[in-house]
Specification:
The protein is α+β, with helices and mostly antiparallel strands. The chain contains 5 helices and 12 strands. Its EC number is 2.7.7.7.
């Protein structure tokens, strides 16, 4: 915050509303009402008069996993106990599987959405689940899953699960029932911007209601004229080997140039 304040981006601290043009965003962590650290994104705005401010928007990072057929509830129960304190929420959602040979038919399968309070928690859980998923997927045959779903759809059955029963619910280690992971590698600030449709270079109304409530950021479609930000551009020229990127260990800097509002 101190560094941002030097450049004029003071954090909104008093409840109120402002209109600003979004110029940048950056992942951060803030304290919630229970004094717990949670992940958020700082959004940087320029107002019409050139003044600046920023506001933090908390958002739970997440990714999806898929299980073998009819094992979703057992896996949810297992994960809630194994990762207690790390996983903030577990829920089952139907999603389209674009890996199927003919996903345009509209077949869906159940995915388990794991939500977290912080990105660090997400990374820790992902590291434990990923090796099991890789091993389990080696045993799966994608054509069998597609055939099973299509047959179920044509017969009027439930098509929200994709994989054959295979290994049953009686498996002691439910990690062996997890066969897929999705959207685990989407950068956190990109994830939030996609889900909430908050993008740079647009005008927004920002309503801050205090630290106990999340900020409201609403797009202003009626404002199109851009403000006049101060732009700093720079370039570094170095030596390098043919067809190689510069190496800081061996290459030399030839010139550093910069321009402000040029």
């Amino acid at each position: 915050d101190d560094m941002d304040a030097r450049f004029g981006f003071e954090r909104m601290k008093e409840p109120g509303e402002k209109t600003g043009w979004l110029i940048n965003m950056h992942p951060t962590e803030i304290l919630d009402e229970d004094r717990r650290m949670i992940s958020a994104v700082d959004y940087y705005f320029i107002q019409e008069d050139g003044s600046r401010f920023k506001v933090a928007l908390p958002f739970k990072p997440y990714f999806y996993i898929a299980t073998r057929k009819n094992c979703e509830r057992e896996v949810i129960s297992y994960l809630s106990k194994k990762f207690q304190g790390k996983v903030a929420k577990l829920e089952m959602l139907p999603k389209e599987d674009l890996d199927l040979p003919n996903h345009l038919v509209g077949l869906k399968r159940n995915y388990i959405k794991l939500s977290f309070n912080t990105v660090d928690d997400l990374i820790k859980v992902k590291r434990e689940i990923a090796p099991a998923v890789r091993k389990n997927r080696e045993r799966e045959q994608s054509n069998d899953s597609y055939t099973s779903m299509l047959s179920s759809a044509l017969s009027g059955g439930n098509v929200t699960s994709a994989y054959d029963d295979g290994m049953s619910k009686s498996i002691v280690d439910q990690l062996e029932n997890i066969v897929d992971m999705r959207e685990y590698d989407v950068p956190y600030h990109v994830r939030l911007s996609i889900d909430l449709k908050i993008h740079v270079a647009h005008w927004y109304n920002i309503r801050y209601r205090g630290s106990a409530f999340p900020s409201e950021i609403v797009r202003r479609e009626d404002l199109v004229e851009r403000p006049d930000p101060v732009v700093l551009a720079f370039d570094i020229e170095t030596t390098k080997l043919p067809l190689k990127f510069p190496d800081a260990e061996t290459d030399q800097i030839m010139m550093i140039s910069y321009m402000i509002d040029g």
